[in-house]
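Blackboard transcription, Thursday session:
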Amino acid sequence: MRYNIEILRRQSPEAENYTENIIYDTDDVGETVANMLRTINSAEKILNNDGKVIEPISYEHSCMQKKCGACAMVINKRPMLACDAFLNNVQINGHIRLEPLKKFPVVRDLIVDRSIMMENLKAVRIWAKQENITLDEETVHISYEAATCLQCGCCLEVCPNFVSGDDFVGAAGFVPAGRLLTQMTVDDRQELADSYKKHVYKTCAKSLACNDICPAGIDIEHVLSASNAVAIWNRLRNR
Amino acid sequence: MRVNVIGAGLAGLSATRTLVKNNMKVNLISYQTSERAQSVLAEGGINAAMDVSGESDSYEYHYKDTLKSGCDIANEQAVKNFAKASPDILRELVAIGVPFNSKNGQIVQRYFGGQEKKRTAYAKSSTGKEIMTALIDSVRQYEVEGTVNRLSHHEFVSVKMDISCKGVYVRDTFTKKTEYYEGPVIFATGGLSGLLPGVTTGSTMNTGNAAAELFSKGVVFSNLEMVQYHPTTMSIVGKRLLVSEAARGEGGRLYIKTKSGEIKYYMEEKYPKLGNLMPRDVVARESYLVVHDDNNEPIVYLDMRHLSKEIWKNRLSDLREEIMHYKGTDPAKTPIQVEPGIHYFMGGIDVDVNHKSNIEGIYAAGECCSQYHGANRLGGNSTMGALYGGRVAALSVVADFGEKCKKQEYAMKKTDSEIKDGERIPESIEHTPVITENAKGIFMESMGIIREGDSIQKGINRLRELQQDKRCNEMDIKRLRLMMAMLESAFYRKESRGAHYRTDYPKRNDESYKGLVKSKCDKVGKITISI
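(Written on the board underneath:)
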């Protein structure tokens, strides 16, 4: 099948956006956007639709099996992992448009600077200083699920409430907090619970758009309610 | 002065934690953030003799199993230290909140290949990801207090060296500017899968360029012929998908159909004791042999239909979802087609028991170094090996540079325009995809599960020709050199041992080859191989 790939490109943060069209032929039903970009880039000469030789397309990638979150981008208007986007499923009349995530500054082409996500995790103070957690079968499934967060940024892209630099940190900030809140003791978690109140509980408008978009399939609503139960109401886990 | 840790996966994070706990400051440098590290792909588990299954396990058994599966060429003292320290490391992971599968507050462990006792702790089938998340969180507090200077989106370019290593050049991939950081360097850059893109289970972020650069700088490598083919992988676009050893640990059975329609559980028939859980080198080789037997249909199946609902739900849920997603097959209902695929490199930077390389100031841990696994790695030992190796490398740096690092000014950062002391600023050069593709083809033809002297020699000759290709840039030349060392090591080892099986020398020969084959590259690119 022939696909018309339209890519929103930019050479540097300061440069202008432009659109590049590339024809891509494949019959492999398992072909993903991530692998397609790699195939395009590995050609000796990369040609666009006008037959012009172009520079390789910059994008981030690593695991190619939706376990690392590197290749998040906007594909036909939906934020998703490029390694999870089968061409067959995402195309509309053979057309696929690729854009960088919009809530982060563009570095080059499809690469964005997601460092605000790391800064937010610091702001929420997500760590266990005492290092004395014990295994608890009652809550361990919540920690397990919360720990699968990829820090890809798709949830922030669809969140009507998240603005880079604001107090609210979005699901990518509060899901990891849930991992520790549900495991730490009352005394040890106080600092985290306090910052959780400020950065999540008081600021999340609960549109839960994140719940539907998460490529890791995390039940974000569940993690959120468990975190609230612990951090705000001291329930679920009293010890 | 800070210690430079290159790579932020299991080994890099473990080294960082250890350094900070010993009052050292760290530059934690990685190409992408830790969430993207290959370590998150580790599935089945992590080994430590916790003795929680009533099988009288102890570190001595872990030590013996590791050494034996590695066919007795790993550093005995290093393996002993590793096995001894493993239970404590596992307890430390629990303390930072890794949600291991447990019962009554106690870790449960599963069977894994090459071990007669249940010694593999796990968090369903996403053990690596779960450990990584907890480690990333634990390092964050040090980033906030400033003891760890995290430099994500920075790639390793080169080391500054005279007779010892003075520091490291890295490039900010966002700004494309080169920076220099003085101080000792711990490499935790992962394996060599980047030399063979598309045919391994590894991360595509790995290029192998750090290893290629170090090899060309005179860092000694060892054990390069020992490449692990994991017996159960599946082909997906752009890479190989790992089917975790946990699938067999929980009861999955390998079989092949004969042309007359008979089903043969070939591992169980030939190895009644460990069956499907023989060490990976053995299972991969047997799978290769049954597929190439004219009496059989050439497809190996892994049958997991009989596994209980409880196992699928609580222990292998992620694996099932992944296979269904990428292959459209439900392994709980249909046997899946599996093939051996390149999964791990036992060889790498040659380090001593303290994880020091031959160059003062250069240390290595994790898959980028050659330690613990000998001729064949046990499943569950890579995660623990990376964590323990990172710790040991860090402690060596503390012993060697502790006082010096504390006395001197911190963070010697220079950018392109400021690096002026007459040196040539090393450039970051991207390798040429078409050269890498050609080299990969040569490698796959001569360095398979079953090898033979003549075909390895042919591969060496073809690599020599490729080195003359006008399209080769400086980085391509370095990468080809490292690959050449892999082939030459395989040619040098005229015996069969572990992952290295040669039809022209099918027997193990302890008299001549009980040791690691070492490779060294001199200043003009000449490679010397020795044992």
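Lecturer's comment: The mean pLDDT of chain A is 95.
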